[in-house]
Give the backbone structure.
Amino acid sequence: MQKKMLLLFCLTLVSGISFIVVSFQHESSNQDRPITINEVAAAEQKLTPLADLANRQALYFGASISKTGHFRVEGQNVIEGYDLWQEHVNKNGGIKVGSKSYQVKIKYYDDNSQIDKLKENITKLIVEDKVDFILGSFSSGFNLAASKITEEYGKIMIESGGASDSIFTRNQHFTFATQTSASWWFKDFFDMASKLDPPPKTYALLTPDKLFTRSVAKGVQIWAASRNIKEIYFEVIDAETSNFTPYLLAMAERKPDIIILTSHYQDAVTFSRQLLRVKELNPKAIVMTIGPSEINFVNDVGAGADGMIGVTQWVAESSFRGPVFGTPTDYVKEFTAKYGQPPTYQDAQSSATGVIYQLALEKCDALDAREVLKNIRQLNVETFYGKIKYDVRGMNIGHKMALVQIQQGRMVSIWPPTAADHSVIYPRLR
């Protein structure tokens, strides 16, 4: 039995290392852009031209966003980020392309957190509204569905809210991500965990059956194995599950050092409330994707949220600096002045999506979709949100993750060390 377990662990570790090596190969080959001339030519033929009219005064962006339904919280964050960018650009004279400047106009449709409605909205934005570019929605499933339509119609889409690797493992040419891909979300957490004294030895993993959450879970298993942290519980559950208690009770029997939930916000809140009622369960760390990194998490969960850790794409304490918004501090100041509260990472990465479009457009001599596409592919720049650099698939390989923890009722930054304003509390207090 011990030999069998050792063999399984070795196979998992080898698989994980292979995955990491392949990923680094993609990164190292980025500058060469190993796409054949025929592929590029065929893709460019499908691009919808941009109307370069003498009387044109604006660039039109379209987005299908969840203003209502399950993703309404995240959807609102995305809208805030897009709107702040739009306001910032227009106040500062617009986007300059060649010798002309254009105002930014964004058109939104509510998809009610329904994929079928999103498909209808994206098609309408392209066919009827004739927008120039598509801004992504929230969630991987929604952005995957949207990208199939934008690719078909030859529209560039940069998306801020879909991290699943599956969006970028097709023969797509016009789809780009702002954030780190899902399978890499937990690398930094396990980097931090390996430095704890003593480091955790075991973890339990729960993931709803969704594109994003499954991709993150795959990465969890790979990065944990690379740090010799053993998986003692793993369950993929129905995407609509709201009763997590049976799974929490099963975890309690295994006594994991770490409990990991890969989820969206509403799942994270429900899960956290139910976890706190299972007195037999006392892990040293509780880690989630979209949950503790959200502003309203403490209010929605209560005092028991203390000690919970969130994996996030961005923290305001980062030392980045770049065009348009300047530093994270500058961005926070501008965001807070507009909305009366600090930004979430979803706010920041949505604003960064606009910045990417802006930088690519400002490198153009005229409104030319092919030139915009080329400029996006070749970006290698630091922004207030972090590094933007694309591999051949349209994944942002320049960006890194961060970690936050709820401490004494508020969210604080704990990783990376250069952006941390507090040390991690481990084991968590209960």
In short: Residues 1-34 have pLDDT under 50 and may be disordered. The chain has two domains: 38-181+317-389, 184-313+402-415. The radius of gyration is 22 Å.
